[in-house]
């Protein structure tokens, strides 16, 4: 389907675009153009070589998608729906690129913007919004993934006065961008509970090692980090962040973006399968002419349309200030699960050709295995919803 109008017709049967404003559509088209011009031509090579294209960082800053939902300090200050649409288009290119935007904006920048001092905001946020500086968000540990309350990383006071610094010891795992970050947002246990710290790159005692031999998110960076008697000044502390409410508020921002982004990966998988089915001849006619193929395509489209409507509804709730955590869990759980199923089904239409990087569905499926796991597993979001329905927490 080379005609864009026709492609829109077969990807948006419900005319969801009619629910978007002219400004929202303009944001989406700008990010879609960027994805087509800067991500699609290189993504197969980046994925195959397991590299993240760092030169995209300032370009994404110029595009206005870094800290997109934040106000002031050089941040774009766009709506939740506009951010969601951008996440969808970026993940149609690759989950790794959308993940960069999420780690930078929804996690690291949100932590500084929401919980940092005025000096910290002025120092970091403008250059992070421009993509000149990169941030990472260090919460998950080797033995504390879904249960961050059990984290072992500990920060102790370096002295007795309130103006004393800190000494940080511990380890983190699966931390996006850590080896290339200019600043790490590190969550650690203290005598007063969980607190957040800003750790600049090059701080003695910090070692970030990229995790290799990944089968997913290959065009992305995830790291192990160790903290060995890392000395921090009092200015490193995020003063307003106390307890797990700090990191969880950032995670909810990221989870919201995932609900949109997953539908981008699903839509791209569906469109790749649809185009292939119309061109590939078997037994004298296109694959698209067979009932089984049409059923697969229809079932994919049903879930993409429903998932996109769900994401849009969450965005409208968020812009109205009424979005609740259990609603975010519903969106993340449903949309990632359905997107993974769609990407796998799209691969079956492509046959053997679908296992090559000439086509996107299996790459999306592999990436979505990570998306399904990070920012809360299926099981965690199921239990969040279960507690909401029954009033009984069943995490332990």
In short:
52% of the residues lie in helices and 14% in strands. The chain is an alpha+beta fold and 396 residues long.
List keywords for this structure.
Butyryl-CoA Dehydrogenase, subunit A, domain 2, 3-stranded mixed β-sheet, 11 helices, alpha+beta, 52% helix, disordered N terminus, 3 domains, 4-stranded antiparallel β-sheet
Task: Describe this entry's structure for a reader.
The chain has 396 residues and is of the alpha+beta class. The chain has three domains: 126 residues, Butyryl-Coa Dehydrogenase, subunit A, domain 1; 109 residues, Butyryl-CoA Dehydrogenase, subunit A, domain 2, CATH 2.40.110.10; 145 residues, Up-down Bundle (Butyryl-CoA Dehydrogenase, subunit A, domain 3). Helix content is 52%, strand content 14%. The strands form three sheets. Strands 2-3-7-6 form a four-stranded antiparallel sheet, with helices on one face. A three-stranded mixed sheet has the order 1-4-5. Strands 8-9 form a two-stranded antiparallel ribbon. The longest helix has 35 residues. The termini are far apart. The N terminus is likely disordered.
What CATH architecture of the largest domain do you see?
A: Up-down Bundle
H/E series: HHHHHHEEEEEEEHEEHHHH
DSSP strand count = 9
Strand line-up of the largest beta sheet:
2-3-7-6
Cα-to-Cα separation, first versus last residue: 50 Å
């Amino acid at each position: 389907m080379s005609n864009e109008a026709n492609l829109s017709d077969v990807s948006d049967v419900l005319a969801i675009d009619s629910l978007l404003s002219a400004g929202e559509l303009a944001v989406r088209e700008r990010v879609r153009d960027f994805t087509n011009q800067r991500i699609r031509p290189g993504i197969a090579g980046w994925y195959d070589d397991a590299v993240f294209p760092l030169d995209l960082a300032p370009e994404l800053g110029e595009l206005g998608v870094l800290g997109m939902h934040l106000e002031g300090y050089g941040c774009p200050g766009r709506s939740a729906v506009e951010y969601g649409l951008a996440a969808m288009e970026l993940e149609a290119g690759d989950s790794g690129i959308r993940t960069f935007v999420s780690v930078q904006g929804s996690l690291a920048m949100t932590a500084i913007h929401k919980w940092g001092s005025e000096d910290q905001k002025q120092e970091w946020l403008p250059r992070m919004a421009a993509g000149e500086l990169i941030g990472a968000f260090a919460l998950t540990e080797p033995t504390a993934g879904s249960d961050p309350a059990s984290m072992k990383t500990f920060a102790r006071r370096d002295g007795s006065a309130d103006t004393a610094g800190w000494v940080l010891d511990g380890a983190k795992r699966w931390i996006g961008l850590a080896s290339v970050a200019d600043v790490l947002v590190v969550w650690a246990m203290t005598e007063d509970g969980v607190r957040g710290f800003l750790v600049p790159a090059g701080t003695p005692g910090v070692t970030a090692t990229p995790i290799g031999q990944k089968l997913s998110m290959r065009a992305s960076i995830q790291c192990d980090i160790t903290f060995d008697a890392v000395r921090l000044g009092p200015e490193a502390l995020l003063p307003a962040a106390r307890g797990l409410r700090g990191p969880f508020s950032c995670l909810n921002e990221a989870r919201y973006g995932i609900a949109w982004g997953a539908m981008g990966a699903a839509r791209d998988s569906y469109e790749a399968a649809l185009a292939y089915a119309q061109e590939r001849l078997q037994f004298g006619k296109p694959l698209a002419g067979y009932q089984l193929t049409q059923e697969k395509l229809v079932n994919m489209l049903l879930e993409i349309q429903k998932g996109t409507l769900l994401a849009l509804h969450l965005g409208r709730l968020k812009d109205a200030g009424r979005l609740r955590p259990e609603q975010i869990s519903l969106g993340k759980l449903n949309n990632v699960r359905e997107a993974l199923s769609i990407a796998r089904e799209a691969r079956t239409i492509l046959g053997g050709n679908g296992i090559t990087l000439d086509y996107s569905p299996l790459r999306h499926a592999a990436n979505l295995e990570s998306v399904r796991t990070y920012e809360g597993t299926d099981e965690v979001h199921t239990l969040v919803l279960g507690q909401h329905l029954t009033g009984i927490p069943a995490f332990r």
